[in-house]
Specification:
The protein has 425 residues and is an alpha/beta fold. 41% of the residues lie in helices and 14% in strands. The chain folds into two domains: 139 residues, Aspartate Aminotransferase, domain 1 (Alpha-Beta Complex), CATH 3.90.1150.10; 260 residues, Aspartate Aminotransferase, domain 2. The strands form three sheets. It has a seven-stranded mixed sheet with strand order 1-7-6-5-4-2-3, with helices on both faces. Strands 8-12-11 form a three-stranded antiparallel sheet. Strands 9-10 form a two-stranded antiparallel ribbon. It holds the Pfam family Aminotran_5.
Length: 425
């Protein structure tokens, strides 16, 4: 049975309500214990483990993940987090020297990824430029897809080259499930940071050029672990990992790209690049099979988890909105909320920027409303709920998860009401 009965498998402090699973995830003790067992094994035999045992277990994780996502094992590797995957893609693309290449992005792109694009544009001396696609939310899925198509057409009409489009499975602070579309001649990169373990994903059907998703958020592996999927057609573009490591093979000047030759064990050059990237603690990569198994045996499997958490966030979000006398951020088809996170409008009548958006905290220091609310949550209520400004209003994002039930959202509603009333005093 899902709900508070499952909470005992996690390590939350007594009284702490984790209504913000989306930011950093949480891993069951059984999976973290497996990771610690592997760390102990590594310390007992460091060289044999790192050189041989790690790669064997990594292959098992890659196989488990490939079956989970419905794609061939040679298309799957792991990186520390989704932002690393996005960086790997963008830093490996060779931009044309005429300065006409464009990166298409939504206005709700994750902040670090948006800054990565800004860095790429700066570092290449504007060989690449960005084109932002904005909407007034809520918006229907077909309008989002049309917006991408219009942006591609506008780019081409203005003499630019739409090179790559970045999509989110579920946006970050706004917690909105978004659609994916492809266009001929434009590379597609899906930032699925909140995807795996939260929504159904079959990458052989989606068929993006690149996909990355955090396993430590909704799949329950320890931090940090993210799957990085690159179909064979796109693998030669990924020349190097971040940082460049032993798997890199230099390409002689003037020589055309060669086929992934691989090694005697049948692994491609692409897989070998990502197999050993320095001595970072990547033990979490090895826990994917245990995480998938735990979810199946302990929680009833992916379909059951998705249905429970999505329904919990939807019902809970509506109840919080009732308490606050506001509304949930969703479209008429309810596709934006078809996930395990929900956004509720806060009854805060204060500016979202400028001096009017500052308030004094308990120490007498001026802080943003976001910080004031979140500091109060931590100190007085033993919880954390992301508060953010969006389209001129204040919102909160809540997460539905297997260890929560309706009573947690009821509590969240009254807690938020109390905080908003204190802020208005």
């Amino acid at each position: 049975m899902l709900g508070h009965e499952i909470r005992r498998h996690f390590s939350f402090a007594n009284g702490y309500r984790n209504l913000n699973h989306g930011s950093f995830g949480a891993s069951p003790t059984a999976i973290r214990e497996k990771a610690n067992e592997l760390r102990d094994e590594c310390e007992a035999n460091p060289c044999p483990f790192i050189k041989y045992r790690f790669t064997q277990l990594l292959d098992e994780s890659r196989l488990a993940m490939s079956e989970f996502l419905g794609v061939p094992q040679p298309t799957i590797v792991f990186v520390p987090n989704a932002t690393t995957g996005v960086n790997t893609v963008l830093r490996n693309i060779v931009w044309n020297s005429d300065g006409k290449d464009e990166i298409l992005q939504l206005d709700v792109i994750y902040g670090a990824c948006g800054k990565t694009i800004s860095y790429i544009c700066e570092a290449t001396h504007q060989l690449a430029r960005t084109r932002k696609i904005g909407f007034s939310y809520p918006v229907e899925n077909d309008e989002i897809i049309s917006g991408f198509q219009r942006a591609i057409q506008a780019s081409q009409r203005e003499g630019f080259r739409p090179r790559i489009a970045i999509f989110d499975t579920i946006s970050s602070n706004t917690g909105l499930r978004l659609p994916f579309c492809q266009s001929a001649g434009v590379l597609s990169l899906i930032d699925g940071a909140h995807g795996i373990g939260q929504i159904e994903l079959n990458l052989s059907t989606l068929d993006p050029d690149f996909f990355v998703s955090n396993c430590h958020k909704w799949l329950f592996t320890p931090r940090g672990c993210a799957v990085f999927y690159v179909p064979e057609r796109s693998q030669d573009m990924m020349r190097s990992t971040l940082p460049t490591s032993h798997g890199f093979k230099s390409r002689p000047a003037g020589r055309s790209p060669s086929k992934n030759n691989g090694d005697s064990y049948g692994k491609s050059d692409f897989v070998l690049k990502f197999e050993f990237v320095g001595t970072t603690d990547n033990i979490s990569f090895l826990t994917v099979p245990q995480a998938i198994k735990w979810r199946e045996e302990g929680c009833g499997g992916e379909k059951h988890i998705r249905e429970y958490c999505t329904q919990l966030s939807r019902n809970g979000g509506r109840r919080v909105a009732e308490i606050l006398k506001t509304r949930v951020l969703d479209n008429t088809a309810n596709t934006l909320s078809d996930c395990c996170m929900v956004n509720i409008l806060l009854p805060i009548q204060r500016p979202t920027d400028g001096d009017g958006g500052l308030v004094k905290n308990d120490e007498g220091l001026e802080v943003t409303i976001t910080e004031w609310m979140q500091q109060k949550m931590v100190k007085q209520y033993q919880t954390f709920m992301p508060v953010f400004s969006f389209q001129g209003s204040w919102w909160v994002r809540l997460s539905g998860q297997v260890y929560l039930d309706d009573s947690d959202f009821e509590w969240a509603g009254w807690t938020l009401k109390s905080l908003c009333e204190k802020l208005a005093e």
